[in-house]
Amino acid sequence: MAQQRMLQFVTRPREMPEKRTPEHRRTDFAEIYREYAGDKAREQASRCSQCGVPYCQVHCPLQNNIPDWLMLTAQGRLRDAYDLSQSTNTFPEICGRICPQDRLCEGSCVIEQAGHGTVTIGAIEKFLTDTAWDEGWVQPIRPAAERPESVGIIGAGPGGLAAAEALRRAGVQVTVYDRYDRAGGLLTYGIPGFKLEKPVVMRRISHLEDGGVQFVLNCTVGVDISFQAIRGRHDAVLIATGVYRARELEGGDSLPGIVAALDYLTASNRKSFDDAVPEFDSGVLNAQGKRVVVIGGGDTAMDCVRTAIRQGAASVKLLYRRDRENMPGSQREVLNAEEEGVEFVWLAAPAGFGGDTRVESVRVQRMRLGAPDASGRRSPELIEGADYDEPADLVIKALGFEPEELPMLWDEPALTVTRWGTIRTDATHATSLPGTYAVGDIVRGASLVVWAIRDGREAAEAILAELAQPAMVAAQ
C-alpha cells in the first residue's frame, strides 16, 4: 500500500509552495514562500521514487532519512514523519528554510537527474516542522535524570545550540556564552528575515531555555570573562564561535560608504527587532535611495543585494569575478534576486574606489575565465584595457569570513590552530586542550548551517562519552 502512494513523479509535476510576487516581497522582509497546504505536501511527497540508493540522504550532512519521512508524509502520517525528521536534525524548521537544497539533497535527487524535477524536500521539511509546532508535537526538553557535570559552550550559533540541546537531553548542565545580546549567532543577526523569519529562531531559543540551557549574553570571552575561567567552571568546554572577521579587499577600502557585509546585515536584522541602530538611522548602514554595489558571489552577497532592494535602494548591482555557472552562491537565490531587481555583473572585479570624502564609484576590471584552479573552477584572468567606473554611494564587501586569532585573544597559546587560523581538531572534535572541543565554522572555515548542526551533535556525543569515563573507572 505504501508503495502505491509513492512513485508519482511521472504523473504529478514538481510544485513549490506559492512564491510571493517580486512586487510584494520587495516591500518587506517576510519569507517569500507561502506554506504548503496539507494535501499539497502529501502530493509532492508522493513524487519520491523511493530509490534503492537514496542519494538525497547520502548528500545530506545530517544523513536525514528523507525517503522514509517523505513516504510517511504521503500517507498522511505527519506526526510520524516529523518524529523521524527531527531524530537526526536538531533544527529541521531552520534547515528546511535556509539549506541550499539545490546543492545538497534536491540536487542529488534521482528523478531530477531523469528530467522530472526534484522532490521539494526542503519545503516539505519546513511544512512538517511548522505543523509540529502548531500541533504541539515538539516536545519540551525534559531529561530522565539530571547529571552533576556541566559543559560550557562558547558561541550561541547553530553548532553550539545543537550541542546544547543534545547535552541537555542527556541531563548535563549547559551554559552558553555569547558576545551578542540575543542567542542564535548568524541565524539571528546574519540571515535576513525573507529567508528565515526571526520568530522562528527565537521560538527555538525559548525551547532551549525552557529545557534548562543557561545563556550568558553580552559576554565576550577574553574581555568580560577569560577562557581559562570558563574552563575552570565546567567539566568540558565546546568552542563554537564561528568566523566573523571580514576578508579585506586589495587596493584599499577605507573610504566612508564602504562597509562589511555582516555589519550591514546585522544592522538590518536589529531593526527587525525594533532595536535602536544609530548607524542605520544615520544612513551609514542603510541602502535607501542609494546606488549600491555588492562585491562577492556567495550566499552572504545574495543576502546583501536582496536586503538592499527591500531598503529602497535606487539601484543594486553585484560584481562577481567569475560567471554565473562558477559562482558559489545558490542558483535559486540568484533567480530570486534577479526577479526582485538585482543586476548581476559577471566577470567583474573591483580594482579601486573613487571619491574624496566618501565613496563615489568603483573601478571595475573586466575578466575572462582561464584554466581551472585547484578547486576545479576556471580562474579569472584580467582583460587589459577594459576597466570602467561604476557609480556607487554604498559598497558592501561580501568576500567571506576568516577566523579571529583565538589563541591570542584568549591568551591561550596551547590552543592549536591550522595555517588558516581555524582550530585544529581530531575526528571527535577534540582540540589540543584536554576536555575542550570545537565545531562549526571555527574548525571548517565559513560553511553551511547544516554542517555546524552535524558537528554540534557529534561533539555532544564525544563529550558525553568523555564525561562517562570517570564513572566507568569508578565502577570497575
Automatic annotation (TrEMBL):
It comes from the Bacteria. One of its GO terms (molecular function) is 4 iron, 4 sulfur cluster binding. Pfam families: Fer4_20, Pyr_redox_2. The keyword Transmembrane does not apply. InterPro entries: DPD_II (IPR028261), FAD/NAD-bd_sf (IPR036188), FAD/NAD-binding_dom (IPR023753), GltD-like (IPR006006), Helical_ferredxn (IPR009051). Residues 151-456 form the FAD/NAD(P)-binding domain. Keywords: 4Fe-4S, Iron, Iron-sulfur, Metal-binding, Oxidoreductase. The keyword Iron-sulfur applies. Residues 26-136 form the Dihydroprymidine dehydrogenase domain. PANTHER family: GLUTAMATE SYNTHASE [NADPH] SMALL CHAIN, GLUTAMATE SYNTHASE [NADPH] SMALL CHAIN-RELATED. This is Glutamate synthase (NADPH) small subunit. It comes from Paracoccus solventivorans. The lineage of its organism: Bacteria, Pseudomonadati, Pseudomonadota, Alphaproteobacteria, Rhodobacterales.
